[in-house]
Amino acid sequence: AAQGFALIRTHACALAPGDVRVVSGKTREFQGPPAMPFVPGGDVSGVVAAVADGEPRLRMGDAVVARFNGSPRGGLAEYTVVKTALTTIKPNGVDFCHAAAIASSGVAALVLAKMLNHGDRVLILGGSGGVGSDLVQLARRFGASFVAATSSDVQLVRRLGADDAVDYREHNVWELERYKREPFDVVIDLVGGGWHSARRCSASSPGILKCGRDGGRFWTLTPDTAWFEMHSIADAIRVFLAPALWRRVYTFFNRSIPRYQFVLALPEGHESRAELLALIESRALDVTLDPAGPFPFTTAGVRAAFDLQASRHARGKAVVSLLS
Ligand SMILES: NC(=O)c1ccc[n+]([C@@H]2O[C@H](COP(=O)([O-])OP(=O)(O)OC[C@H]3O[C@@H](n4cnc5c(N)ncnc54)[C@H](OP(=O)(O)O)[C@@H]3O)[C@@H](O)[C@H]2O)c1
């Protein structure tokens, strides 16, 4: 394998919204696919089959988990090339499917949880998805005093440890009196578009989220729509950069509305995955795999996994198992 890379025999590949975006071709100029034929998939676990000489952390035969390099590609194959800097040794006590499931979603959840202040009251929009199902648990672990989440599966969110759960099909979470009486310090949007409601929470008409002056923060991992087209720099500015920068600057100065932050939650390095794997092994983190999976590594199996991921209603992670 080339310096900085390892070849792994893939055992599991977890899908994420980014995989659906890449396969759709809607962000092709930024994320690929570069050409056909194309192998999708980016979050993988498996066993090292080859590694460059002088690589200090990895040896042939090591069980590992790795996330994509640049954009998700290459993971839905019997062998895949991973960047060693993004590869972490998998402990024996964590199976390959659960390990693949945290490769990027778990890391994003961990990054968000570590941004919390001790005692924060937190609302997660999208608590049963790939990131949310980990974040509900990690938010509490990293200091939140109260965690609520929206979901169409309130039982799952409660089972994961949320103090309260709101079925967004039945209730408008932004109008709930119990939250207006005791507003949140932080709203974390994993769905997209929540800012338009959050910005109406202001010092003059208190809502469910505190205003910036009182420490209210709105964090999002997504632009206003979860699915978007981006083919040019102008598109990137319109979809991502302009709203994120303008809102950040505007809410920095205007403290009568919550403070906005678009979070890029995929750091380089392998440490976050190691931390998550240790939490899973010690049973402090219960990673959710959608019950329809793990999907078999067949055309029908991979299509079903993609359909589930594209539906935006996966319970936790959609995972393909390459172990027969
Ligand atoms: N910025 C970064 O570094 C970074 C890193 C990782 C992920 N992300 C992004 O973060 C977002 C979340 O990722 P994910 O893996 O958690 O996605 P996911 O597994 O597809 O979860 C989507 C969530 O949205 C909810 N949802 C779907 N339709 C809804 C609706 N109409 N109203 C309210 N809620 C709805 C779902 O809840 P129900 O199933 O209950 O309906 C589910 O909880 C994605 O946009 C992803 O691209 C960004």
Describe this structure in words.
Helix 8 links the parallel strand 9 (186-189) and strand 10 (217-220). The mean pLDDT is 94. It is built from eleven helices and 13 strands. The protein has helices spanning 17-24, 28-31, 96-101, 105-114, 132-141, 154-159, 177-181, 195-198, 233-253, 271-281, 299-311; strands at 5-14, 43-51, 63-66, 79-83, 87-89, 121-125, 146-150, 164-166, 186-189, 217-220, 259-262, 295-296, 319-321. Strands 1, 2, 3, 4, 5, 12 and 13 form a seven-stranded mixed beta sheet that branches. A six-stranded parallel beta sheet has the order 8-7-6-9-10-11. The radius of gyration is 20 Å and the shape is globular. The structure holds NADP nicotinamide-adenine-dinucleotide phosphate. NADP nicotinamide-adenine-dinucleotide phosphate (NAP) is lined by residues 16-18, 104-105, 108, 126, 128-132, 151-153, 168, 190-191, 221-222, 226, 263-266, 312-314.
Question: Which key features would you list for this structure?
Answer:
324 residues; alpha/beta; Quinone Oxidoreductase, Chain A, domain 1; Rossmann fold; 2 domains; seven-stranded mixed beta sheet; six-stranded parallel beta sheet; 13 strands; binds NADP nicotinamide-adenine-dinucleotide phosphate
Set out the fold topology.
Elements: E1 5-14, H1 17-24, H2 28-31, E2 43-51, E3 63-66, E4 79-83, E5 87-89, H3 96-101, H4 105-114, E6 121-125, H5 132-141, E7 146-150, H6 154-159, E8 164-166, H7 177-181, E9 186-189, H8 195-198, E10 217-220, H9 233-253, E11 259-262, H10 271-281, E12 295-296, H11 299-311, E13 319-321
Parallel strand pairs: 6-7, 6-9, 7-8, 9-10, 10-11, 12-13
Antiparallel strand pairs: 1-2, 1-4, 1-13, 2-3, 3-5
Helix pairs in contact: 4-5
The chain binds NADP nicotinamide-adenine-dinucleotide phosphate.
